[in-house]
Design a protein that fits this description.
The chain is α+β, with helices and mostly antiparallel strands. The protein has helices spanning 12-25, 38-41; strands at 32-35, 49-52. 30% of the residues lie in helices and 13% in strands. The two termini are 23 Å apart. This is Acid phosphatase class B family protein.
């Protein structure tokens, strides 16, 4: 799922958590999350396992 213009200005952590919630409501299981920012990993629903990858180009606090 991609962010739409309606999502502009919304907190990225909340957006990603909402997308995971939509997927689980459709019956999908979130087994793993892979991301280079904590915003990709944080929030509920969570996954069985998460992978935080380094990104030497930038880091969002």
């Amino acid at each position: 799922m991609l962010r739409d213009s309606d999502d502009e200005g919304k907190d990225v952590r909340q957006f990603k958590a909402n997308v995971r919630k939509q997927l689980t409501n459709k019956g999908y299981c979130i087994w793993g999350i892979l991301g280079d920012q904590w915003s990709s990993i944080e929030g509920l629903p969570s996954a069985e396992i998460t992978f935080k990858l380094p990104n030497r180009l930038y880091n969002l606090a």
